[in-house]
Write a structure and sequence with these properties.
Blueprint: E1 2-7, E2 13-19, H1 26-43, H2 103-116, E3 121-124, H3 136-146, E4 154-158, H4 163-169, E5 175-179, H5 185-190, E6 193-196, H6 198-208
Parallel strand pairs: 1-3, 3-6, 4-5, 4-6
Antiparallel strand pairs: 1-2
Helix pairs in contact: 1-2, 3-4
C-alpha cells in the first residue's frame, strides 16, 4: 500500500490518500519492468529506415571496362558497394521492431513501476476550477508550490482532460500531462516528480487493480 500526503491549492497538507496495487515480487520486479520498458520503446520505432543494395541502385548494368589488359582492378559494375554511388552492404531495410508481452505482465509491470515511484508522488486536491481561463503562469507557480520544480521533469496525471489545465500546461517544457487510464511505464519512470489528484488515484485504483 502506498500512502501519500494530500496538499491543497496553497501547498498545505490537508489529509492522506492511499493506493493499493498488486505488484511483482521483489526478485522479479526489475526484470518485468525492464521488459515492459524495452517493449514500449521498441513498439514506438517506425522501422522505416531503408537503403538500396547494388541490385536496386539505378544503372551499373554494363561492365565499365574489359576484364584484362587495362592494368586496373577488374570491375563488373559501377554500382558495386566499393564504388561511390554504389549499393550498401547489409544496410537497414524496413522491419517490424514490435515485441509481444502478455497483458497481465504489462499491467503488473505498470503497477510495479507506479508503486516504485511512491516517494515522488505528489497528491493535490482538485484544482480544475482554478483554470476556468488558461493561465500558464498560475500552473507553473502552483507546481513549484506543491514541490514539483519544473527544472526537472514533471508528470501530471488527471482523471479527465480539463481544457483550462491542458491549455495552461501544453507549452511548459518539462511538464507532461496524461490521463489516469492511459498510464505507461516510460512516462512513470522518466519523470522526476509525479503530480496527481485524489480522483485520478481512484481511477488508477479502479482501472489497474486487477
Amino acid at each position: 500500500m502506498v500512502t501519500c500526503v494530500v496538499k491543497n491549492w496553497e501547498g498545505e497538507a490537508v489529509g492522506e490518500a492511499t493506493l493499493e496495487l498488486k505488484v511483482a515480487k521483489e526478485e522479479n520486479a526489475a526484470h518485468i519492468v525492464h521488459r515492459a520498458l524495452v517493449r514500449q520503446l521498441a513498439n514506438a520505432r517506425q522501422g522505416t529506415a531503408s537503403t538500396k543494395t547494388r541490385a536496386e541502385v539505378r544503372g551499373g548494368g554494363r561492365k565499365p571496362w574489359r576484364q584484362k589488359g587495362t592494368g586496373r582492378a577488374r570491375a563488373g559494375s559501377i554500382r558495386s558497394p566499393l564504388w561511390r554511388g554504389g549499393g550498401v552492404i547489409f544496410g537497414p531495410k524496413p522491419r517490424d521492431y514490435s515485441q509481444k508481452m502478455n497483458r497481465k505482465e504489462r499491467r503488473l509491470a505498470l503497477r510495479t513501476a507506479l508503486t516504485s515511484r511512491a516517494e515522488d508522488i505528489i497528491v493535490v486536491e482538485e484544482f480544475a476550477e482554478q483554470f476556468a481561463r488558461p493561465k500558464t503562469k498560475d500552473l507553473v507557480t502552483a507546481l513549484n508550490r506543491w514541490g514539483a520544480n519544473l527544472d526537472r521533469k514533471v508528470l501530471l496525471i488527471l482523471n479527465e482532460k480539463v481544457e483550462g489545465v491542458y491549455l495552461s500546461g501544453r507549452n511548459i517544457a518539462n511538464l507532461r500531462m496524461i490521463m489516469a487510464n492511459q498510464l505507461n511505464v516510460y512516462d512513470l519512470l522518466n519523470a522526476d516528480r509525479i503530480v496527481t489528484t485524489p480522483s485520478a488515484l481512484a481511477m488508477i485504483q479502479e482501472v489497474y487493480s486487477d
